[in-house]
Design a protein that fits this description.
The protein is mainly beta. About 10% of the residues lie in helices and about 50% in strands.
Length: about 260
Amino acid sequence: MRTNFLIRLLICFQISSCGFFSRALRKDKTLSGGAIVTTFNLVDKSGKFELRRESGYIKSKNQYITKRQIFSYNSDRKLLEKSIVISTPGSVKGVNVMRPSISQYTVWFEKKKYFTEMEISPKDKSMLIKLNSPEKQWQGESRLKFPPMTGVYCYFSQVIECANLTGFLDEATKRQAGSMKILVIWAGYPYFQEQYLNMPNEVFSNASLEYDGKNSNGERRFTLKFSGQSIFYFIDNKNNLSKMFWVSQGLSITKKH
């Protein structure tokens, strides 16, 4: 069932309809600063694609929502993957953090739909995982306990926003050094892991986000390190993502101008 294209970090939520969250981000007058909509060129070993990313904070619900969609680059703009993750901003011991809440991820392989939903239960520190796919091994429900806390919990698609909320991006820039421990949650599990080389088959990965200086354009580089992998993020002066490179996987994301 596997094709040779990589999963693109996507993301769309379907509890009622994907459009609901898009409308909420645009119309909720209590949004802090409004929704940020950014379009990127995404290139991997299988070709060139368009990534549309929409994110923002809904004050009335105290939710930070990140929605991602990946389209083919040709004239038909076929939707290939979609996902959304929702986190609840809060604080732990005086540090502002994103508390992951719920996510959904959908991808199509050979015109067949593969779907994951993850819902976190803070009371018993567990995650309910629902899988729906054409393959028996990826069907049904399971519950997974959270591993011991080794840092802040962050969805992979919200790593930069997560680090920004804690104040790490600005503090590391000020000091010209710094490392932050993160427990990455892979909202696309298990399909995400099937597409990448040397990826451990796990929902959670211990990682560190490290400051690596500035480039000639004044962008700051932060490196996410986990399981022998390194992902390079380039951040503008407003702490927004401008580029991302995952060299070992042949994946690059660059902001359209």
